[in-house]
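Please fill in the sequence for the structure shown.

STRUCTURE ENCODING:
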């Protein structure tokens, strides 16, 4: 089918972005909103986004005008009669979506494809509200829609199989990569991404580390484009909360229960970027940290040579009476601390990537030692991430369960390794997909890290996925790709 005239219902952040994507690809777009105010807001989104591209020299003024000229706006659904495709991007409430689809089914010509951009609601339940279940499909875009390169094409058991390649082709025409998946809560990306974001909120609430330290650890240490709290603010805390609720209802996995902190912020209408404030948005003016001028240190344990060298080069010398004893570690260090004469001086240190140093303070570590450790890392060009002395510190505690979830997802047969990797790279801008990451860290390292997390938190889902365990036992270092 030739898709020339498309409609987008709901012009919030996602809907406006999707309308822009279609118009940029040369299609005519009808944008629909409930009232004139909402239409004006939607128009504002597209105007700002295209103006930004003009300002950056990515688009000429003429091209921007042509894009805007291809978008017409209306408050009347009846205007959608002739659309070849309608993409719904209204709030994530199943009853609203079902009633909209019933309406669209009545209004649109019989061959019109009805697509939903739902983040996690069952496409099957939405399709069932229409008399054209074979022509209902999920087209799931990622925020910001004009930038992220993925579209999840979600088919139900009722979808006409011929429609999947047609919509995938359309996604390619939009400059996106399609990944075709079945109708399970969260599809590929949200099923892997949101539990990680939720876990970050849980760990923040438990006081494992501070907001900015967790964001820095994942961005600068792991290399993700944004830290979890900055990303939650981009997605919208209400959306994240809703997706988590849907995931929990389907899986009953307590890790999928929305973090109470999310609920609190949503109730306070602190929804993230769209409301001006969420996890971020109320920063006090950054205060210059007080720096100790002279710091002495001692390095304990194995793997200390490189850090010692860097500290020496920066002018610091190991001392027999140090302010801080740094112990390279990727496991809790309290058992080492208690063997020391002065356990208050011990801080665990782990360099993540080449920009971050996780600094684990035990229950006995003094504030002076923790501060000395932080200042030393800053001086040698590493971003210090202060955290409590828990298995996995910050990065492994957030990264490894996500990798484990990806293995489990593949093992259920829901998606291929190639599709899961591509989905995370293109949908979230990750530098590598989970299987690529697993292989570069080492399957055995991740398996052992998960065992340590399991032993610490006793969380059933942290037990290494049987497939991962078996590959390690078999001495296999890469995943079997078809
Ligand atoms: N609209 C349009 N374009 C935008 C934009 C927006 N809101 N934000 C950024 N851009 C464009 C910029 O214009 C720039 O384009 P250019 O290279 O052509 O000049 C490009 O994106 C890069 O922007 P910046 O240099 O300003 O900023 P960054 O390099 O920091 O990138 C980012 C911003 C693209 C948002 C990047 O941080 C990123 O990839 N973050 C991850 C986002 C993500 O994970 N999204 C998925 C969320 S999950 C989801 O949406 C599913 C839902 O169901 C919950």
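FILLED IN BY: designer on duty
SEQUENCE:
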């Amino acid at each position: 089918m030739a898709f020339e005239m498309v409609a987008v219902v709901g012009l919030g952040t996602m809907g406006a972005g999707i309308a822009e994507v279609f118009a940029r690809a040369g299609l005519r777009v009808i944008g629909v909103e409930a009232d004139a105010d909402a239409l004006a807001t939607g128009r504002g989104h597209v105007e700002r986004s295209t103006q930004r591209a003009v300002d950056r020299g990515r688009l000429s003024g003429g091209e921007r005008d042509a894009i805007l000229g291809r978008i017409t706006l209306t408050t009347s659904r009846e205007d959608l009669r002739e659309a070849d495709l309608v993409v719904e991007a209204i709030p994530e409430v199943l009853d609203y979506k079902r009633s909209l689809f019933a309406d669209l089914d009545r209004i649109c010509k019989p061959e019109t494809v009805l697509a939903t951009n739902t983040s996690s609601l069952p496409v099957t339940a939405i399709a069932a509200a229409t008399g054209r279940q074979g022509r209902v499909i999920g087209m799931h875009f990622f925020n910001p829609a004009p930038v992220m390169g993925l579209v999840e094409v979600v088919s139900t058991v009722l979808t006409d199989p011929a429609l999947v390649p047609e919509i995938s082709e359309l996604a390619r025409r939009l400059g996106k990569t399609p990944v075709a998946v079945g109708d399970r809560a969260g599809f590929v990306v949200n099923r892997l991404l949101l539990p990680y974001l939720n876990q970050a909120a849980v760990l923040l609430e438990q006081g494992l580390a501070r907001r900015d330290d967790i964001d820095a650890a994942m961005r600068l240490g792991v290399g993700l484009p944004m830290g979890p709290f900055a990303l939650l603010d981009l997605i919208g805390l209400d959306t994240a909360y809703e997706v988590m609720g849907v995931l929990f209802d389907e899986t009953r996995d307590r890790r999928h229960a929305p973090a109470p902190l999310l609920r609190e912020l949503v109730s306070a209408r602190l929804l993230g970027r769209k409301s001006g404030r969420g996890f971020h948005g109320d920063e006090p003016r950054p205060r210059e940290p007080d720096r100790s001028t002279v710091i002495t240190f001692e390095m304990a344990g194995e793997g200390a040579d490189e850090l010692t060298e860097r500290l020496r080069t920066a002018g610091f010398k190991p001392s027999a009476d140090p302010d801080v004893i740094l112990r390279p570690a990727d496991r809790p260090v309290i058992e080492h601390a208690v063997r020391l004469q002065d356990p208050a001086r011990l801080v665990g240190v782990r360099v993540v990537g080449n920009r971050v140093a996780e600094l684990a303070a035990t229950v006995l570590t003094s504030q002076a030692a923790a501060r000395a450790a932080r200042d030393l890392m800053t001086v040698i060009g590493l971003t210090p991430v202060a955290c409590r002395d828990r298995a996995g510190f910050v990065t492994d505690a957030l990264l490894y369960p996500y990798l484990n979830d990806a293995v489990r997802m593949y093992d259920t047969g829901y998606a291929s390794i190639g599709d899961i990797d591509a989905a995370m790279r293109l949908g979230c801008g990750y530098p590598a997909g989970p299987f690529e990451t697993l292989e570069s860290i080492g399957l055995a390292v991740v398996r052992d890290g998960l065992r340590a997390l399991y032993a610490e938190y006793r969380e059933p889902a942290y037990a290494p996925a049987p497939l991962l365990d078996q590959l390690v036992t078999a001495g296999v270092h890469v995943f079997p790709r078809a």
